[in-house]
Amino acid sequence: MSFRHVVITGAGSGIGAALAQAYAQSGVRLSLCGRNSARLDMIAEACRAAGAEVAIGICDVTEADVLQRWLETIDDERPVDLLIANAGIGGAGTLTKDQAEPGAVARQVIEVNTIGVVNTLTPLLPRLIARGAGSIAIISSVAGFLGLPDSPSYSASKAATTTYGEALRRLLKPRGIHVTVVSPGYVETAMSASLPFHRPFLWSAEKAARVIQVAIAKGRGELIFPWQFRFAIRLARILPTRMVDLILMRFRAKDVW
Ligand SMILES: NC(=O)c1ccc[n+]([C@@H]2O[C@H](COP(=O)([O-])OP(=O)(O)OC[C@H]3O[C@@H](n4cnc5c(N)ncnc54)[C@H](OP(=O)(O)O)[C@@H]3O)[C@@H](O)[C@H]2O)c1
After folding, report:
1. Residue 214: CB within 6 Å of ligand 1?
2. Whose Cα sits closest to atom 30 in ligand 1?
3. What is the pLDDT of residues 218-230, one digit of tens each?
4. What is the domain extent for residue 194?
5. Is the pLDDT of residue 257 over 90?
6. What is the total count of domains within the chain?
7. Rounded Cα distance, 112 and 85, in Å
8. Is residue 16 lining ligand 1, measured as CB closer than 6 Å?
């Protein structure tokens, strides 16, 4: 599958920026959303240099009405055929320390990572369904499969996002719309660089974007990378809960605190 109008939230940095550059070519319109206009401008320039037509939307994914107006406007201009819900927060600022996360942090993580995805996808769903075509990608996380003791709300926000994406995939496939749920492990971005511990099996954002792009093009329903985390997730499903708890608690005690 190739795409003519690609929307990416959180496109000003990290995986979103790498995806924008991966899709940038002549004949493609990119609509890039985020809150930081300076960073979005830089990425937009790089994408224009690669031949893409680029529009920027300064939107916070938690502001449903603003996001809806922007999405409907850009879809009126040229029908969107790929919608990537990538914006998210995580990293050092959302880790537990000697206590559980403060309520305000936990609520913000769920608001951006889960409600933000709902806000990104729901406005255009009726239009995609009416057209009987289109693709959606949701950038979730391997953390959505394992409740990490350092990141309870991040894990929960991604678990909800993954399940939401899986349900949409099953709902929308018979209507001609492909949904790819992407669960990355560690990717070299500002978010993950802020983590105060070793990041095993780290991928570059460019490599992640290339692999995500191929999975979306093939209409794959699920992408979990790297394979080492895919294997660990499958293993955790069959091991006794007590053993998985011990492994995750030990990992935390050894590497973090
Ligand atoms: N890096 C990893 O290791 C890793 C692993 C698994 C999953 N992920 C997921 O991958 C996605 C991208 O993260 P990243 O690693 O590329 O981090 P990043 O470089 O920090 O990028 C996150 C992007 O999200 C945008 N964003 C944050 N809050 C927003 C909001 N309220 N409204 C609109 N945009 C918002 C930010 O742009 P503005 O500041 O301009 O708003 C930023 O461009 C996230 O969903 C993250 O959870 C990352």
Report:
1. no
2. 60
3. 999 999 999 999 9
4. 5-255
5. no
6. 1
7. 11
8. yes
